[in-house]
Amino acid sequence: VKYLFEITNTDLLARKxxxxxxxxxxxxxxxxxxxxxxxxxxxxxxxxxxxxxLVDFIITSSYILRKRFENKITNLHDLTSFPGPIxxxxxxxxxxxxxxxxxxxxxxxxxxxxxxxxxxVPLDIPISINDSYAEAKMKVEKTIxxxxxISSLISNTNTKWVAxxxxxxxxxxxxxSAQELGHIEIFDMFAIGSVVEIMNNYMYDTLLxxxxxxxQYLDPKKPVHLFGAGHPSIFPFIVAxxxxxxxxxxxxxxxxxNRYLTNTQTFLLDELDEFPCNCPICSTISPTEMKGLKKNExxxxxxxxxxxxxxxxxxxxxxxxSSGTLWNLLESRSRVHPNLRKGFNVLIKHSSLLLPNSxxxxxxxxxxxxxSDLEKPEVLLHKKRLSELKxxxxxxxxxxxxxxxxxxxxxxxxxxxxxxxKSNDKLNRNYEFWILNDYFGIIPxxxxxxxxxxxxxxxxxxxxxxxxxxxxxxxxxxxxLKFKEIIFLGELAEFLxxxxxxxxxxxxxxxxxxxxxxxxxxxxxxxxxxxxxxx
Length: 535
Ligand SMILES: [Zn+2]
What we know:
Layout (H helix, E strand, L loop, with lengths): L4 E7 L2 E8 L2 E5 L1 E6 L13 H5 L4 E3 L1 H8 L6 H5 L5 E3 L3 H7 L6 H10 L4 E2 L12 H16 L11 E6 L5 H11 L5 E6 L3 H5 L3 H14 L6 E3 L8 H6 L4 E4 L1 H7 L2 E3 L4 E3 L18 H5 L3 H29 L2 H9 L3 H12 L16 E3 L8 H12 L7 E6 L9 H13 L1 H6 E7 L3 E4 L11 E3 L5 H18 L3 E6 L2 H9 L10 E5 L7 H11 L1
Parallel strand pairs: 4-5, 4-11, 5-6, 7-8, 8-9, 9-10, 10-11, 14-18, 15-16, 15-19, 19-20
Antiparallel strand pairs: 1-2, 2-3, 12-13, 16-17
The protein binds zinc ion (ZN).
């Protein structure tokens, strides 16, 4: 095995790939079911996890293992009947809750090695949502110190070690934690912790701030896990923010409360007259029949359906990464609940952080369906490139406004316009030619066939204020660049109003010419005539 983590596709900060382990491959992004170490306590037979539910990776509790099986078990894989890779936590969280077991940095490492954990965690100190800043800081520092010191405690090379990134709602502590542990060789993976209470309180905005912050300082070659991811509706968001795997016990916990998961919502069994799912469970039983079952049997079926839902959502997400459409998946999921929208707004706010992995592997067109698509990383990337281009090499400017027009219908026109410019030497020497589009703003004609400008499909009804923003910022831009003459062509209704009424546009109005008409390939001769009449 050459690389631990092989990345095949990226979209936003999401990474589709494979974590290679001695116990088998983990496809990422990966949903990691939380499993009880005692086989009889699980509602679904863990032995069937791989074949029936396509589960690659599970996590189980060190604390319970210690409590029930100390000195008795020797191998985690035999006990759980799961042949694939298994992660264990340090046991610190439950130990804090229930006490009883004395944990030391040394015995935590030794125990996880002893039971054959594939991915182990050093003794961390989880942070509670009620901790003061001082308490949280102390815990973070202690966790960093213990994590740094594990080399001397490790004896078995089969267990890979996961660096616990703590800090909770205190973003600067998350940053400190990630900065100090993010490039330590001994760790093969990172895991962001202390988010369960944050998630239980639906603080999805804080959750995404935490992940995005940590992500900036962690070695990009290594996978990032999230401890305790909860409901599948949040999965696409944490993946987009850069988590490669995450565990959740929701499939089983919700089932115990008669809760039926979908990828966006939760229903009580009583609310359903028909199952909105076609998994092997839902296609063979009705809600009424399920309600009539004994509790154990009912919980088992519900947990099984819930597990299918989690895995199906992961497959949706992996598909979206491959096709470069993760942003659209987030957009659609964010419409389901205000808390998800809050989470999405954090990604919008930090859209520039999502740039590095975007666009490089994309082949398909960009879809623009709403005004939040104005924040798409590809749009920001275009604007960043634009600011680096020398846009006024020439003294005069032609602006072809195609606001409210479907750009896909105009590619031929762009090609023809490029040919005119090329064939008319005087035009070409003197005039910059910009196309003005709803989503990308200014598109220099010369680069109009560059991805993704020429591969976008949009709904062309932006809200009036958004259109005005685009026009105003374009006019500001033009003013700054001090062109000597400007010719406006095309869809100019909004433009003309502004040009007539606004005094801020401190341009000699005699140097402005405006030709208001509907832009289409059919009008090419008209545009050609105007352009040629210029010279
Ligand atoms: Zn189902």
